[in-house]
Amino acid sequence: GQQVMQIPQYQHVQEGEDFTTYCNSSTTLSNIQWYKQRPGGHPVFLIQLVKSGEVKKQKRLTFQFGEAKKNSSLHITATQTTDVGTYFCAGPNAGNNRKLIWGLGTSLAVNP
Amino acid sequence: DGGITQSPKYLFRKEGQNVTLSCEQNLNHDAMYWYRQDPGQGLRLIYYSQIVNDFQKGDIAEGYSVSREKKESFPLTVTSAQKNPTAFYLCASSPDTLDEQFFGPGTRLTVL
C-alpha cells in the first residue's frame, strides 16, 4: 500500500546548527502537509505545498516539494530550543478513500 | 473562541471496562478524525468521518467504535475488545478530509 516515509527518525543538534527532515512517498502526491508536535502537545499545522518544485519559507523554516511531487523536505536554519518537537509530513491517499497518509515523524532535540 | 475540545485530559479505567472519549468542535468542519499515538510513535488513524451520520474505519479500528450524530461531536468508545488501550488519543477536524487538520489537546487513557 501507499507509504509516506520520513528520515531521520531522530535528530539531536546543538543550538544554532541547521536541521533537515525528509519525507518520501511511494506515490505521487497532489499536495503535502507538514505539522509540528511539541513534547506533550498535539500536532499543529505548519504548511501545505501543492506545486511541483514549490519552496515556501516561514522565518527560519524552509519547505520544499520535489519536482516529481514524491518527496519533500523541511529545513530549519540555526535551530533554537523552541524548535524541539516532532515534525510530521502527510499526503493524500492515492486511492478512493479520501484521507491523509502520515509519516512516522522526525523527533528533533536541541541542546542549548 | 473556535476550536476542538477533548475531555478529559487524563482518564483511568479498569481492564474490561468500556470508556468513551469526548470530542467537540465549533469550527463548522465536516470531517472529523480519531488518532492513536503511542510513545515515540506516529499517528495511527482509528476512525474518520467525512460528514455527519457517516464514518469509515481507519487503519486500527478493531476494538473501537464511533458515532457522528451531530456535526460538532465525534465520540470514540474504547471497548473491552481493544487489547492494548493505554495510549494518547487525539481528535482532529478539517473542512474536508484532505484539508489542513486541527487537533484537540488529546486524552491520555490508562487502563489498569
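The mean pLDDT of chain B is 94.
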